[in-house]
Amino acid sequence: MKKKLMAFIGLLAIMLFTWGCSSDMTTAPDTSGTDLTSAMNSNGAERVSVLVGFVKGNRPDAALTAAGGSILKEYKHVPAVYVSIPTSARNALERNPNVLYVEQEMMRDYIAQTLDWGVDRTDADYVWANSSYTGTAINVGILDSGGDMDHPDLTWAGGYSATDSDPTYWEDKVGHGTHVAGIISADNNDIGVVGVAPDCNVYAVQVGGRRLSTLDIIEGIDWVIATHYDADPNNDIHVINMSFGGGGSDAEEAALISADNEGILCIAAAGNESGAVSAPANYACVMAIASSASGDIFSYFSNYGPEIELIAPGSSIYSTYKRGRYATMSGTSMACPMVVGAAALAWSAHPTYTNTQMRDLLKNTAEDIGLTAYYQGSGLVDAENATIGSTLGDN
Could you check whether the bond before residue 86 is cis, i.e. omega within 30 degrees of 0? Predict the structure, then answer.
């Protein structure tokens, strides 16, 4: 009997001990499959994501590795990478002789105000009526919020999205990109409006929604440059429209210099703050466009300064809009595509021109409307004079 009692007590002790261990195990974290190195990194040094520009052909991979960096985004034709690095490694990376800049992602705002005469004021209609030039075979990239893919008054040549998981889906949910596209190339048909160069080929390059990031803008520029290297010789982008602005970005400027070197004419809105010209319009490789209102007066909202090269109608412009609609909008965002459309029209008449020659042509044929160079640059864009060399339109 005593032996049985002792055995029972021993069994009871083992059960209690086992139950106690099981209870502890249910509250302990499951570390199976845990990467201890990753856990240490996540709880250790603070990290920052930055754009790193480098001397072309000399990507500092060794320095990035030594800094503990991991590449988040690469570009095919722009010498830059977007990486995650420990914050403490940034200064050393900036001192690398192959590194041109290290900067964080920046956000952009569209330059427009929700608020039809502008196309007529550029005398584009005189060109269509008195010549065969309508922008045919000229390719335009619109870096913006995308485009209304089914708008009845727009014929798209194609597009690309830097913001959607499907790069072939660039539907405009904002309306800004669709409005810009209509100013450049709305179809010359029986409905809606007509653009400055109605037969040019427009490509929607979606680089943002309500706001834009320099990361996506650079990706859009990279895609535009890539059209000059793909198997299709007919889709090379001639000119890009950038109706957005903000603070300066070395990475964005470097990307646009690459585009300019590729022969692409880069044109941007000056901005709507009644102050200094914003980026990217203030980069030397980009044409900065101010806005005028009816009666050839300076739009009250338009930015101005020594960077301004041309002025164009931008107040109360009626154009295409999202969901198959139309809208009136104001801003240097609307003036910029007036110049882009004029460039497409003139380039169809001068197909052998380089981007530098086209830039000079647009300035040399502009109409002096009596403002100082800070406000009008070389003058108001004249699509007729730039395309067919006459000034017989009704202005």
Answer: no
